[in-house]
Amino acid sequence: MKYFYAVVHQDEDSAFGVTFPDLPGCFSASDDMAQLLPNACDALELWFEDAKEVKPLRLDQVQSYAADELRQGAFILAVPFIRNTGKLARVNLSLDHGMLDAIDKAANARSLTRSAFMAQAARNEIECRR
């Protein structure tokens, strides 16, 4: 997992705009502050569909690049990026039986396998809780 730093800005009477200084053309927007991170994660995922690995800029580099915007009220958001490799790995987890039953019930309700549900839950937690 890598973190890319996004610059978030908002003009009066507009949505929040999110841009990535090191990823030309990668951007997102949100009317709601709570959706900034999930939308930015989606933007990264879409941008990297056809792009090779990129080493993220360091925080100080992004601060320097966006200095004028930051002085005008913009802020920086660390956005996690999890590249899907297509390679599966078998792991062993220990869970309380009650939790396992709840996971299986929730996975079944979504027509997912236990593994798919756990992977989706982990991605949601990482991308939405930062």
Q: Span from first to last CA?
A: 13 Å
Number of helices: 5
Which sheet architecture does the biggest sheet show?
A: 4 strands, antiparallel
Average the pLDDT over all residues and give the rounded result: 91
Uncertain parts: none
String of helices and strands = EEEHHHEHH
The strand line-up of the biggest sheet is: 3-2-1-4
Give the overall silhouette: elongated
Strand content: 15-25%
Report helical residue fraction. Answer: 40-55%
**Estimated structural class:** alpha+beta
Count of beta strands:
4
* Rg over CA atoms: 18 Å
Task: Describe the model.
With 130 residues, the protein is α+β, with helices and mostly antiparallel strands. The chain is 40% helix and 18% strand. It contains 5 helices and 4 strands; from the N terminus they run βββαααβαα. It has helices at residues 36-47, 59-65, 67-71, 97-109, 114-128; strands at 2-10, 16-19, 27-30, 75-81. The protein has a 4-stranded antiparallel β-sheet with strand order 3-2-1-4, with helices on both faces. Helix 4 (97-109) crosses helix 5. It is elongated and about 55 Å long. The model has no long low-confidence stretch (mean pLDDT 91).
Sum this structure up briefly:
This protein is α+β, with helices and mostly antiparallel strands.
Strand-helix topology:
Elements: E1 2-10, E2 16-19, E3 27-30, H1 36-47, H2 59-65, H3 67-71, E4 75-81, H4 97-109, H5 114-128
Antiparallel strand pairs: 1-2, 1-4, 2-3
